[in-house]
Write a structure and sequence with these properties.
This protein is an alpha+beta fold and about 625 residues long. It has 20 helices and 24 strands. The chain has an 8-stranded mixed β-sheet with strand order 8-11-12-24-23-22-19-13, sandwiched between helices. Strand 4 and strand 5 form a beta hairpin. The chain is globular and about 95 Å long.
Length: about 625
């Protein structure tokens, strides 16, 4: 039974012989064994129904709904007849059984009703800008501006209560696992890595700024260097980045974890059962992956086109380049001949061998900005479609054999440099499976992505940069970094780009819940790792001075992870958008419509902070022209 269905009113009943001012019971309390009792309830008018002059009022509070009845003979009828939705009222009356055949099995209170002997209006409500009863689709800007009304809706109330229960469960479980919760600062220093910071001007130090933490990353590593062990925190994080369905702009929360004297295996084997049990506890009975598969990064990219694969989708892409090399399909053949990095990937589509489906997928690809999506339809007598005709029956049969396809199936093809087309290929794989009904949407499919590359090549700037987390321990340690640095000095970036890191992501149903890593805890190794990415040693000492200095005084090997709380609750609530599980979120433009933020400061506030606002050039031009 959920918190909303159970009594939270320990105050229910009588105190020193006097009835409570507002309620003896909550609207979720009353059952058949209360029949005949005189009660007092308070709550919101959820809905009013007039059945031949008899008024039925659904009275709602945090805990549930109770049906209140007032007929023309009731002394409360005159007041009941004036009520409107969302008025706050107090009801006195007695509990009786609902007439046979009118029970509501969907409500815990559905076998009884309260016959009103008195109703007092505690607060009236103006005409509502959005309905509370029911779950109609409503514009998000109106919902966010009047969030206090939106949160009264049953679905939203349930989501927020679910979030609270998840946080409570996690705190208890982490303590049971031997972790201790510590709080880290909110005002900190700006970080040169990651997303944009939110900055806070200092009044006492003109021209200097604090930053809100993008994550407690450095602090939690300092906690390990301070001699503590097994830290966790339900941590607020702040990043000035654009909104997405699975990301809130501005502020989000994560289950932040760090452990000392651990290997990657220790972290994974500690965190995995916590997440598995969490989703079993709150997942509504949906199956949860028993043993999370561990998929190397490069394998994930090759099979799924993404490092966030949805494993509810059974389709795996395969490299079929050799079947097109030197073939009669000159577009692919010439592409493969032109650049050794180019490949042809195939997306199997079991049961998708109809012309209508293949044409529909081709149109979808064009809508995604692609020239199209090549395909082969497999028949009893061979392949059908332009590609099959151009490459011939033998190559077509070889593709079908490699992909395990038969008559009635199809295959779709993407070609070029996988680094450029993998994102589209991943979307196409998901679209094919979704259209063919192959995705089991009633389960939670987890996996670990491991062995991320330590570095990647920035083609625009022609330089190496960190691909994931700059504080990670490279596989191969100092020896691997020294070999890479020596090669870089000769102009060879290959060894550096080949270094893997002890980094790992946890993914569920195609949503990245967290990144983590075993940390680089050695000062000299840390300096060389950053130097390969273009940071001179003095920059490391300046930008990451606290961490660098701490490591000089003896730091334990340590590692951690930080699963996103908002994303986990979003999956558990089966919501497509993270704003549906956040109490007071911003909109997609990073605006708080409820509180009116961001907002300009007064001239006096700006003077105190030693700040002058310089409008963007476009705005200045418009003001001059105006």
């Amino acid at each position: 039974m959920s918190a909303k269905e159970t009594s939270g009113a320990g105050m229910a009943g009588k105190e020193k012989g006097k009835t409570h001012a507002y309620r003896t019971h909550t609207c979720g309390d009353l059952r058949k064994d209360h029949i005949g009792e005189t009660v007092r309830l308070s709550g919101w008018v959820h809905r009013i129904r007039d059945h031949g002059g008899v008024l039925f009022i659904d009275l709602r509070d945090h805990y549930g709904i109770t049906q209140v009845v007032a007929d023309p003979d009731s002394p409360a009828f005159e007041t009941a007849d004036k009520l409107h939705a969302e008025w706050v009222i107090r009801v006195d009356g007695y509990v009786r059984a609902r007439p046979e055949g009118t029970e509501n099995p969907k409500l815990p209170t559905g076998e009884v009703e309260v016959f009103a002997t008195g109703i007092d209006v505690l607060s009236e409500a103006k005409e509502l800008p959005l309905p509370v009863f029911g779950e109609p689709h409503y514009p998000e800007d109106i919902r966010l501006k009047h969030r206090y009304l939106d949160l009264r809706r049953e679905r939203m109330h349930h989501n927020i209560m679910l979030r609270s229960q998840v946080v409570s469960w996690l705190r208890k479980r982490m303590e049971e696992e031997g972790f201790t919760e510590f709080q880290t600062p909110i005002l900190t220093a700006s970080s040169p890595e990651g997303a944009r910071d939110f900055v806070v001007p200092s009044r006492l130090h003109p021209g200097k700024f604090y930053a809100l933490p993008q994550a407690p990353q450095i602090y939690k590593q300092l906690i390990m260097a301070s001699g503590f062990d097994r830290y966790f925190q339900i941590a607020p994080c702040f990043r000035d980045e654009d909104a997405r369905a699975d990301r809130s702009p501005g502020e989000f929360y994560q289950l932040d974890i760090e452990m000392s004297f651990v290997t990657q295996e220790d972290v994974l084997s500690t965190v995995e059962p916590v997440l598995r049990d969490l989703f079993r506890e709150f997942g509504g009975g949906r199956p949860v992956t028993e043993k999370f598969p561990r998929i190397p990064y490069h394998e994930a990219m090759r099979k799924y086109g993404t490092d966030k694969p949805d494993l509810r989708n059974p389709l795996e892409m395969q490299d079929v380049s050799e079947h097109f090399r030197g073939s009669g399909f000159r577009i692919f053949a010439q592409m493969l001949e032109k650049d050794e990095r180019n490949r042809v990937w195939a997306i199997p589509a079991p049961g998708g061998g109809s012309r209508a489906f293949c044409d529909r997928m081709n149109s979808w690809a064009q809508g995604e900005g692609q020239p199209g999506l090549g395909y082969i339809m497999f028949r009893e007598d061979g392949g059908a479609g332009p590609l099959a005709k151009n490459i011939g029956p033998d190559r077509t049969a070889a593709i079908a054999e490699q992909l395990g396809l038969k008559a009635g199936d199809a295959a779709f093809f993407v070609a070029g440099n996988p680094q450029k087309f993998s994102a589209f290929a991943a979307d196409a794989r998901q679209k094919v499976a979704d259209e063919l009904g192959l995705i089991d949407k009633e389960r939670f499919a987890f996996c670990w992505i491991v062995d991320f590359p330590m570095y990647e090549w920035n083609e625009d700037e022609k330089r190496i940069e960190f691909s994931h987390n700059p504080f990670s321990m490279p596989q191969g340690g100092m020896e691997a970094l020294q070999e890479a640095w020596e090669a870089i000095e000769t102009g060879d970036y290959g060894p550096a780009l080949g270094i893997k890191a002890y980094q790992y992501d946890i993914v569920c149903n195609g949503v990245e819940l967290s990144s983590g890593a075993i940390r680089n805890h050695l000062p000299e190794l840390m300096k060389l790792a950053f130097r390969i990415a273009g940071y001179e040693p003095e920059v490391v000492e300046e930008k990451f001075g606290a961490l660098y200095r701490a490591f000089q005084y003896g730091a334990p090997p340590h590692g951690g992870i930080a699963p996103g709380l908002d994303r986990m609750v979003m999956l558990l609530a089966d919501e497509p958008n993270i704003r549906e599980v956040v109490l007071f979120p911003m909109n997609q433009q990073a605006e708080d419509l409820l509180m009116g933020a961001p907002a300009p400061l007064s001239p006096q506030q700006l003077r105190e902070l030693h700040i002058r606002v310089v409008p963007p050039k476009k705005q200045m031009k418009q003001e001059k022209e105006g």
